[in-house]
Known about the structure:
This protein is an all-alpha fold. Helices cover about 75% and strands about 0% of the residues.
Amino acid sequence: MPLMYPIKHVFRNWKLFTAIVQEKAVSYVDQIKDRINEINGEIQQLDSNFRQEKIDGDEYVQKRQSLKHIKDSLKEECSRMGVIPP
């Protein structure tokens, strides 16, 4: 069933509503960017641990692939939202 009124007329203060929506979108993008940066740090630490022989090759590959997969997914989400990922 279609809306009887455009959504703009449902909210009395349309500017406030759009500002809130944009603020939430920005904070979501910031969260994604922060997570990508955290993953970059985790990958660097993982590389360091492997070079220092604190972990074996199988564990290194498994963890690195997992982190890379998550990072790629987050980058795709940034791109979908029109934001250049870090």
